[in-house]
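Page 42, continued from yesterday. The earlier attempt failed because a stray header line got pasted into the input along with the sequence. Redoing it now with the clean sequence only.
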Amino acid sequence: MRWSNLSAHADDGSLPDRAASAAPPLPLALPGATVRTFDTPGFAGMTFYEIRAKSLINRVPGASRVPFEWTVNPYRGCSHACTYCLSGDTPILLAGGSTRRLAEIRPGDSVMGTMGAGPHRRYVPTTVLDHWATSKPSFRVTLSDGTRLVSSGDHRFLTDRGWRYVSPSEPHQPTLAIGDLMFGVGHFAESPKESPDYQSGFLCGLLRGDAASRAAREGDAWIRADSYLDDVSLPDALRWPEAPSGEWYKGFLAGAFGAVGRSERLAVAFESTDRIYLRWITEALTHLGLTSRTPVPCRAGRPGRVETGRDLWSALRFRHLTGVLDAPLDASGVGVRADRRLAVADIEDLGLTLPLFDISTGTGDFIADGVVSHNCFARGTHKYLDLDPGHDFDSRIVVKVNAGDLIRRELAAARWSGAPIAMGTNVDVYQRAEGRYRLMPEILAALRDHANPFSILTKGTLILRDLELLTQAAAVTDVSLAFSVGFVDEQVWRSAEPGTPSPRRRLDAVRRLTDAGFSIGVLLAPILPGLTDTEESLDETVAAIAAAGATSVTPIPLHLRPGAKEWYAAWLAQEHPHLVPRYRELFADGAYSPRTYQDELSARVRMAARRHGLHRPTPAQIRTVPTPESPIPQSSQLTLL
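This time it went through. Structure tokens are written below.
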């Protein structure tokens, strides 16, 4: 697609109602585009670049193994994708246990995320892939423990009822409610200020601990101690205080850790031969609300031991309250839990549009002020437009406003052969933006008037709006409609495809279209080895597809490209470790499973299709993925990510 000579104007009558001019910096690849924003909640924070394209019907690259040669894509970018944003002051949990403001997070940072299905998740380190800023109408969510989170309405949190939107723009999206229990560890404690009391406590904990230790330590703690001695006298620091403050206790524990402490995965342990010193450590932990235990009694001449609770909440609270940020933390594999302290107490519309931030990570989530928070996945289709593949893909949508006129001119050209045209092959033509721009009715009318065959692959129920036009076109030419449904298991769907319409909603749309007389094909994609390739899963999914009235089902096995492969492998090792050897064998030679496995899946799906009365797909409908022994082309196969 060439983007020069673009000439859409604000007064050309092509724009939907309630449009307002906007003027953010234009990407280099979209010179002359008319830029619009809309004041409706469903499009808050989104920018539409309206361009008059030179062509609409595009040829598929010859190396691509897909059963079509021509495509039409009236949009670039997808408003189906959710936008998730939080206040820049929100503390984000880093993989090492410390926190950083969301506004200061950068691509490449290692943060804590989760992996698993639904509420059955575990903490894992993950890498930040992208970071961006935006401005959106904002809401404040207050939890029972006092946590306050400022976010956009489209932000999602993990609760005991699954992922919930703060204030969704679509009526079918699950909404956060008062009383929902969020998953996480609870509000992060603020780091201590290096007050005179904190400094005195630090020196006391470090020096007294060092005196009772059998092995002298070196490190940053002693560098801090030298700087504190400029403001605190040594005799005062060594004196046990009569009424220690909270800041003194925090400093004392930090100093004690520098002298005799060590981290043991989640627990923080202190060993010393000085029983009085250990009692002060126990008192300090208790004062700060941290449980402690003494697994080995302190005996004369032998070191005693005090340790914190062996849970993530205690591990984080110790580090955050004391300022001990260099204590190694290994939380990978720890289970994620809901907590009564994290019950939603209030959801307030602030009535303000505020600057907000978001990141994308390898796991698709991160820990925001102690609760599990969903984020966006990055995409690559915007890069050649000088737009980023994360937030820009979701919020900066290129709209070919002259699509209707353009396709009529191209279909009428003498050189056009009348070949079949495929739609929905790059981004969904029935994404949310189509509800406002209404480009598809004009495209469908042109295809109908020229009796040009076409196909549509979609996950959007908005296709039902154009049912009459589709029916008219089907009376004069071949019209092929398809949905993708890889499985019907709710837990797998929420984990593997968290941003898509549920499989049941897609099957409801299949049923409506079937009732209207269309033969709907369903792509059973992706099939996940060991998870959704079982006889039971395949049979249940094919049965649901058949019950919806589909006339064919085409199996497409999972393939794992670089990036997706690493993410999936880590998740698999945590949640289904018994499957790891099988995946190593299946994907040992690259991104694709062996031909024998693909053939076996095809045979099993064909058998299930026969059991449930589904017709076998025609050769033109079957899409074959390459074997590892063959050169692997650029594929438009549906994948897990």
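Notes: The two ends are 25 Å apart (CA to CA).
Reminder to self: strip header lines before submitting.
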